[in-house]
């Protein structure tokens, strides 16, 4: 084995300064960290469908664009790592089977405050909860936000979205925009 090809440049060629060698190794060491940050969890999940939908209340409708998380892995990652979300954007979590009232969401590795609406099979809002980012390095120290009602879908939006648009329990999410009356 040729060890010379694996040694730092300064050890093989004494004419190269130690500072230059240290700079070389620092760049190599920092590369994966910078690369990881640029492609890390802050980016939207790849391959998720985005649908146009609207929340409907007595006051009218509010159009939204929702990323759809329908597999266990997609739901597990959710909006983790995002540093922002467009005002009319969110994530729809879909389950095949209903979840009980004690099932909830948490904010581990989630950087922005969110509101969550828990929906029944017909898209009717059963409850809305406000969730704050969890700064703990351990997920076990992050609070859970249980639905308080059985649900089969949930929608996360920016904090204050539901209050701003006067959306409440009993209002509905329509997944097809042709079912969205003008506001």
UniProtKB/TrEMBL annotation:
InterPro entries assigned to the protein according to its UniProt record, in alphabetical order: DUF192 (IPR003795), Saro_0823-like_sf (IPR038695)
Residues making up the signal peptide according to the UniProt record: none
Regions annotated as coiled coil: none
Gene3D superfamilies assigned to the protein according to its UniProt record, in alphabetical order: Protein of unknown function DUF192 (2.60.120.1140)
A UniProt-annotated Pfam family: DUF192
Protein name according to UniProt: DUF192 domain-containing protein
């Amino acid at each position: 084995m040729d060890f010379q090809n694996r040694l730092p440049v300064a050890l093989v060629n004494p004419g190269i300064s130690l500072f230059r060698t240290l700079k070389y190794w620092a760049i190599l060491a920092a590369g994966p960290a910078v690369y990881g940050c640029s492609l890390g969890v802050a980016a939207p999940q790849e391959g998720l469908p985005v649908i146009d939908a609207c929340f409907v209340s007595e006051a009218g409708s509010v159009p939204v664009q929702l990323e759809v998380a329908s597999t266990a892995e997609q739901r597990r990652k959710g909006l983790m790592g995002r540093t922002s979300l467009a005002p009319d954007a969110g994530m729809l979590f879909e389950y095949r089977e209903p979840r009980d009232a004690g099932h909830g969401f948490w904010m581990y590795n989630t950087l922005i405050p969110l509101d969550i609406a828990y929906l029944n099979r017909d898209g009717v809002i059963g409850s809305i909860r406000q969730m704050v980012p969890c700064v703990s390095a351990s997920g076990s120290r992050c609070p859970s936000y249980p639905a308080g009602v059985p649900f089969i879908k949930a929608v996360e939006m920016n904090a204050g979205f539901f209050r701003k648009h006067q959306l409440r329990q009993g209002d509905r999410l329509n997944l097809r925009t042709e079912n969205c009356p003008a506001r």
